[in-house]
Amino acid sequence: VEIGDIYFRLGKKRLANDYYMQALEVSDNVDYTSSKVVINDKLAAVFYHQTHYEQALRYYLSTLQLIKIHGYPEEHNSKEMQVYNNIALCYVKLERFDSAFFYYDSSLEASRKMNPAMQDVAQGVIMGNLGHLYQVKGDYNQAIKYLKKNIAINSKPATDNADVVTSYTYLLEIYNELDSTKNFKQIFDTAIHFSLSVKRNSINLWRARLYGIMADRLYKQNNFNDALRYRTMQMNLKDSMERVDRIEDIQDQVFYRQLQQQTKKVEQLEKDNRMQQARVQTYLALAMLVIILLVVAIIGLNGYRKNLKREKDLNVKIASQNEQITLNKVEL
Predict the structure, then answer these.
(1) pLDDT under 50 in the chain at which residues?
(2) CB within 8 A of 174, min separation 6: which ones?
(3) What is the pLDDT of residue 34?
(4) If you ran DSSP here, which 8-state letter would residue 183 be given?
């Protein structure tokens, strides 16, 4: 699991998936522990990031089932809240919106059982996701209400600024769709400001999306020069990310081939060791057989010598008796 975590953080999802699968296979051979929940949850996250939403949903549902049957040794039910939320995200991607609403509601219910200090952040995340769901369904009034709730919560110090950027982006998309000019530039500048404080690489996707929204907005207003400037900024950022992705893909391929070669070398060494051990065992068995044969031969030789000695002694005795009989006859 830890090796899988390292590869996941490095963006090597395929390798992370391989190690999580191995961990899951091992966990099936032991009694239930919280590790099964963790492994299923991590596998689901990998599949979600790879856009394999059906598989992600299957593992998230499996995670939820394990929690419901066996419990989870984490206080305040934060894991249960996260799993409900992630299941809803999968249903949104699969456009099964009624199921998504159900699981978002379940996630909110689970969040109310959490430590009060954690409730705001958890509920802020869910509010933002609900806002996006309403946006996808075209209910912009509800979407704006929930997105603003998310922003109000996550704009506080020590909260997730990346989530704020996401909600601001959705909000600007709605305002652009509605052709609303109210505080548009101010909201855009605030979103960019928050995005600059986020250290995750994924934030560049949202920043590029923000530039694209502003470019669309300015184009509608016939402000072509500024529209071109923001579109260029968007394209440059996308090109930069694509170059990084290509480099990372090449690095992943090289790394994966090297790992395969190292694995083959290790497997060959293990095979050679097994063969060497088999040869040693064969030699030991042969040596033992030779020793046994020698012992048997020695025992047989000793027995043969003893038999010879007995025969010799018997012959001497018989000869002596015959000689005595002969002397007795002469005397007579």
Answers:
(1) 76
(2) 135, 140, 143, 144, 147
(3) 64
(4) T
